[in-house]
Here is the input.
Amino acid sequence: MNVSGSEEPKPYQRFKELYPEAGAAYEELGKACHGAGPLEPRIRELIKLGIAIGAGLEGAAHAHVRLALDSGASEEEIRHTVLLATTTIGFPSANRALTWVNDVLEP
Here is the structure.
């Protein structure tokens, strides 16, 4: 998957170079998961952002902010996704996630 019209993250590019069959299988799994249900791309990307935030995955959060923007999500919707995490993962973790979001929204 390409992230926001920019090139894929370098670690992911390297993974695909080292393990092309696994990289292709991973991409196919992603396509199958995204296409398996009724959710529109904007909602899927906001959910994926929430998952990345909850799992503490900075790189994935960056990627899904970009993909959410590409899918039509507003900055307000993206920041609301972070705010919703506050009561589940706590203020410090949600505030950390907000810095990740701002890395993309306010470069």
Notes: The helical segments are 10-18, 20-35, 41-55, 58-70, 75-89, 91-105.
